[in-house]
Design goal:
Length: about 250
C-alpha cells in the first residue's frame, strides 16, 4: 500500500474517532426530535387522502349510509370519516406548531399549524349552506389555501440548502414538491370555481388536493430521512477535519 493510501486511512480513522468523542448528545437528540416531527407530518400527508374513501367504504360495508367519495378532502367532514379528517388535521397542526428548527422555519411552521387547526375546526360549506355556514366555508377555503402555500414555502425556501454538493438531488425534489403544491392548489381552486370535474368519481378538486398533499408528504418524509443522513452521525469525507502530513516511522 502506498504512503498516500496509508495516510488517507489514518485521516479517516482520526476523523471518525474525533467525531465520536466530541459528538453533542443534546444536538443529536434535537435532530432526532425534528426528524420525528417531519416524519409525522409526512405520514399524515401521505395517509389522509386514501384514508377517507377507504374508511367510508368500510363503514358502508358495515351498514352505514355515509357517502364514499366526498367532493373534496374537506368534504369528508360530512361523511363517516369526519373524525379521521379532523383528528389528522389537529395532529398536523400540533406537529407544525411544535416543530422547531431555526427562526425562519419556526415562523412558517407556527403559521401553518394555526391554519391546519383552523381548517379542522372551521368546516367547509355543506351542499345547502346557511348564510353562517357559507361564511365559515369561505374562511375554511382561505385557511386551506394558506396552509398548502405555507407547506410549499417550506419545500421551496426552508428545505432549500444548496451548500453540500451531495444534496443537490434532494434539493431538486424539494423544489419540485413545492412547485407541485402551488400548481395543484391553483388548479383545485379553478376547478372549485368553475365546477370542472365535479361529476367524476374522484372529483378534480379531490384529485388535485390529493396530489398537493402527497407532494408535501413526500417532501417531509424525505426531509426526515435527510436530517438523519446529513446532520446526525459520523461525518463523511466532506466533513473531514484538516490535518497535517502523516509521518511514518523509518
Amino acid at each position: 500500500m502506498s504512503e498516500d493510501a496509508q495516510g488517507n486511512r489514518v485521516l479517516d480513522w482520526l476523523a471518525e474517532n474525533s467525531s465520536r468523542q466530541h459528538r453533542d448528545p443534546e444536538r443529536d437528540q434535537d435532530n432526532r426530535t425534528v426528524g420525528r416531527l417531519r416524519l409525522g407530518v409526512g405520514v399524515i400527508g401521505i395517509a389522509l387522502p386514501p384514508a377517507v374513501p377507504l374508511g367510508n367504504e368500510i363503514l358502508r360495508a358495515l351498514g352505514s349510509k355515509t357517502p364514499i367519495m366526498p367532493g373534496s378532502i374537506s368534504g369528508s367532514y360530512y361523511t363517516g370519516t369526519r373524525n379521521v379528517f379532523v383528528g389528522s388535521l389537529c395532529a398536523l397542526g400540533v406537529f407544525l406548531i411544535c416543530y422547531r428548527y431555526n427562526k425562519r422555519d419556526d415562523r412558517f411552521s407556527s403559521a401553518a399549524g394555526v391554519f391546519a387547526l383552523a381548517v379542522a375546526f372551521l368546516p367547509t360549506s355543506p351542499d345547502h349552506p346557511t348564510a353562517r355556514q357559507q361564511a365559515v366555508g369561505v374562511i375554511h377555503l382561505v385557511c386551506a389555501a394558506l396552509l398548502l402555500l405555507m407547506l410549499a414555502a417550506f419545500c421551496i425556501v426552508s428545505f432549500w440548502d444548496p451548500a453540500p454538493t451531495d444534496r443537490r438531488q434532494v434539493n431538486r425534489l424539494y423544489l419540485t414538491a413545492g412547485a407541485a403544491i402551488v400548481a395543484f392548489t391553483a388548479i383545485a381552486g379553478i376547478a372549485q370555481w368553475t365546477g370542472w370535474g365535479a361529476d367524476w368519481t374522484f372529483t378534480s378538486v379531490y384529485l388535485c388536493e390529493t396530489l398537493a398533499v402527497w407532494a408535501f408528504g413526500i417532501a417531509w418524509l424525505t426531509a426526515a430521512l435527510d436530517i438523519g443522513a446529513f446532520r446526525v452521525g459520523v461525518p463523511g469525507p466532506r466533513t473531514r477535519p484538516s490535518a497535517g502530513p502523516v509521518r511514518h516511522a523509518p
